[in-house]
Amino acid sequence: NLDYDKSSIDILIHNHVDFHDDQLKKFVKDQAADNELSAYRSVKLISSEEGVDEETARNQALEALLEVDADFLFVVDSVVQLDNPNALTLLVEQNRGVVAPIMIRPYSSWSNFW
């Protein structure tokens, strides 16, 4: 539940796990551009059936970013949970070329900044 204008967000979801395909296909269908209840500018799914690896999916995200002349690329891996609804706004407000949040796993010695 990010506190950000969803009508200015294009979502590209890369799923590499068969188990999640049905749920993600439903989400994409529910968020289709022709659905008046959709809050996002666009939603695209790269499903596990397509056999696209993570590197290729990230490159496709960059290509899509250039096609729509987007200002930002926000990448979140499946192991990350954002608890702050203002996370996206806070990152954008930094007005820098590249920003990244520090991620931790509570009660463990893991983080993305080692």
Description:
The structure is a single chain. The protein is 26% helix and 9% strand. It has 114 residues and is an alpha+beta fold. The protein has a two-stranded parallel ribbon with strand order 1-2. It starts with 9 loop residues before the first strand and ends in a 22-residue tail after the last helix. The mean pLDDT is 85.
**pLDDT average, as an integer?**
85
> What is Rg?
15 Å
- Number of strand elements: 2
First-residue to last-residue Cα separation = 28 Å
Spatial order of the strands forming the largest sheet? 1-2
Could you say which overall geometry the principal axes of the C-alpha atoms support? globular
* Unreliable residue runs: none
Strand content: 5-15%
User: Based on helices, strands and strand pairing, what is the structural class?
Assistant: alpha+beta
Largest sheet: 2 strands, parallel
Count up the helices: 3
User: What helical percentage do the residues reach?
Assistant: 25-40%
Give the SSE order as H and E letters.
EHEHH
Give a brief description.
The protein is 26% helix and 9% strand.
Descriptive tags:
about 110 residues; alpha+beta; 2 strands
